Amino acid sequence: MNTIKNVIRSGLYGTTLGAAAILLAACAADVVKDPGVAKARAELTDLQSDPRLAGRAPIAIHDADTAVRDAEVPQTDPVVETHLVYIAERRVQIARALAQTKYDEDQRKTLSEQNGQIQLNARTNEANAEKLKNDNLQAQLAALQAKKTDRGMVLTLGDVLFSTGRSDLKPGSVENLDRLVTFLGQAPDRTVRIEGHTDNRGGQDMNQALSQKRADSVALYLTGRGISSNRVTSVGEGYNSPVADNNTDAGRQANRRVEVIIQDPPA
Amino acid sequence: MKTANLSTPILIAAGALALAACATVPLPPNDAFQAADIAISNAENDHAADYAPLEMRTAHEKISAARADAMQTDEVQVAQARPLADEARVEADLASAKAHLGKAEAVNQELQKNNSTLNQEIQRGSGG
User: Fold this and answer.
1) Residue A29 predicted with pLDDT over 90
2) Which chain B residue has its CA at the smallest distance from A80's CA?
3) Can you tell me the mean pLDDT for A11-15?
4) Do A83 and B87 touch (CB under 8 A)?
5) Which one of A89, A150, A235, B19 has the minimum C-beta count within 10 Å?
6) Residue B75 pLDDT > 70, yes or no?
7) For a pLDDT cut of 90, what percent of chain A falls above it?
8) Closest CB from A94, A108, A126 relative to B108
9) Does the distance separating the beta carbons of B98 and A111 come in below 8 Å?
């Protein structure tokens, strides 16, 4: 009785196993192989092996890995497979985008520091250039031998620039004027006031006219060498402002002068 | 009197059958719909349409399709509602991620450009 039961039982068992084997084989044949699965896995691997990105979106990368593994589970329903691949592809793309964003944000710090350094360099360069320029100008002013007064720096051009009673500049007497031109060229904010002066020999009208013409000559020299005329004023003072005693030859020579006042820069 | 006694058990049986039939139609996947709605709303707050217009449009289309499917009587169509809603959600998440990336890259490009411009000005300055 028992042996009969056992035979029946083992027979049934074998049949069940056999049936199960057939079923499994059938499943294996029907499994859908979507190429998107391998593609998604490859893209995820790329991301995970990129040293710049791999550590920068751990949660998103983990989610992507889960989604890819879900897609890698063999499916028989192509609709389900397509859906899982769809999700997996996008989770990988999301992880990559998030990691790249984090990378960019980290880079920003470096870029800001670079920016700060460049600006600092620029300002240092500017300051150095400015100092150099000022030193240069100071040197030029010194070479002009202009005297500092409350009206500005005064460059006195002596009598030697002109022949007696004439207002045209003598050639070869203009070295200091050329230095003045150079200086004015590099200090475009400076203006000049040119004053002609005479000794007290001769009438007021004559001396007024002569002093004006001499001042104009000097002005013309400057504008002729490129100094804008609206930076240059020329006036004749006649014998009204002597600097020396008109009763001596030396004094009168000293009084016969043209003063070029380099006005202080506007405040 | 006799007909009443016969129809009552029939009515009860019919009612039971009807209830059984209702029980086989699944509830709409409201959790999936809500998740998708939130993801789309977040993406819109990020102006994701500027950076990922296709993804945003797809997200909208899929959630609409998901909702429509949930209201069908055909079981196959109803079963599509949840996966579609999930796809709408992931699409919106992707749109958001692209928007953030687009903005981050724009900021960095601006900084790079500033640095280049500054460098150029320094070159010119020292030459002049």
Assistant:
1) no
2) B83
3) 53
4) yes
5) A150
6) yes
7) 56
8) A108
9) no
Range with the lowest mean pLDDT among A98-102, A136-140, B44-48?
A136-140
Find which of B54, B69, B108 to mutate to test the A interface (most A CBs within 10 Å of its CB): B108
Chain A with chain B: Cβ pairs closer than 8 A: 70
DSSP class of A256: S
Q: How far apart are CA A235 and CA A136, in angstroms?
A: 30
Residue A17 pLDDT class (50, 70, 90 cuts): low
* Per-residue model confidence as pLDDT tens digits over A36-57: 999 999 999 999 999 999 999 9
Contact residues on chain A for B104, CB-CB shorter than 8 A: 100-101, 104-105
The nearest alpha carbon in chain A to B81 belongs to A83
Give the residue from chain B lying closest to A88, CA to CA.
B90
Pick from A83, A106, A113, A123 the residue to mutate for testing the B interface (most B CBs within 10 Å). Answer: A83
φ, ψ of residue A99 to 5 degrees: the values are -65, -45
Long-range pairs of B40-46 with CB within 8 A, sequence gap ≥ 24: B40/B88, B40/B89, B40/B92, B42/B92, B42/B96, B43/B92, B43/B93, B43/B95, B43/B96, B43/B99, B46/B95, B46/B96, B46/B99, B46/B100
pLDDT, average across residues A109-135? 87
Q: Give the mutation candidate from B93, B116, B124 for the A interface (greatest A CB count, under 10 A).
A: B93
pLDDT at A167: 82
Cβ–Cβ below 8 Å for A115 and B118: yes
- Judged against a pLDDT cut of 70, whether residue B76 lies above it is answered with yes
Nearest CA in chain B to A67: B90
Per the CB < 8 A criterion, the answer to whether A204 and A238 are in contact is yes
Helices (H), A73-148: 78-144
Interface check for B79 against chain A (CB to CB < 8 A): the answer is no
Tell me the pLDDT band of B127, cut-offs 50, 70 and 90. very low
* Contact predicate A157/A257, CB 8 Å: yes
- pTM of the predicted model over 0.90: no
ipTM value, please give it.
Answer: 0.78
